[in-house]
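Per reviewer request, we include the raw input and output of the structure prediction for the construct analysed in the revised manuscript.
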Amino acid sequence: MSVARESGDRAQQLRDKARHMTEAAERTTDPEQRQRLQEKARKLQEQCEQQGGTGGGNIRPSK
């Protein structure tokens, strides 16, 4: 497997994890938990973008 492929796979995993956290944040009724999940999702998305894994749409929660 090439380095580019591994990087792309990692970026996809980060996007997926961030999307799941965003979805969990939308489902929770606890405002503090929602904020924690949204923050974790945002950090994962930033990490993904730093690795060059753009694409996959905007997973950040709307404000």
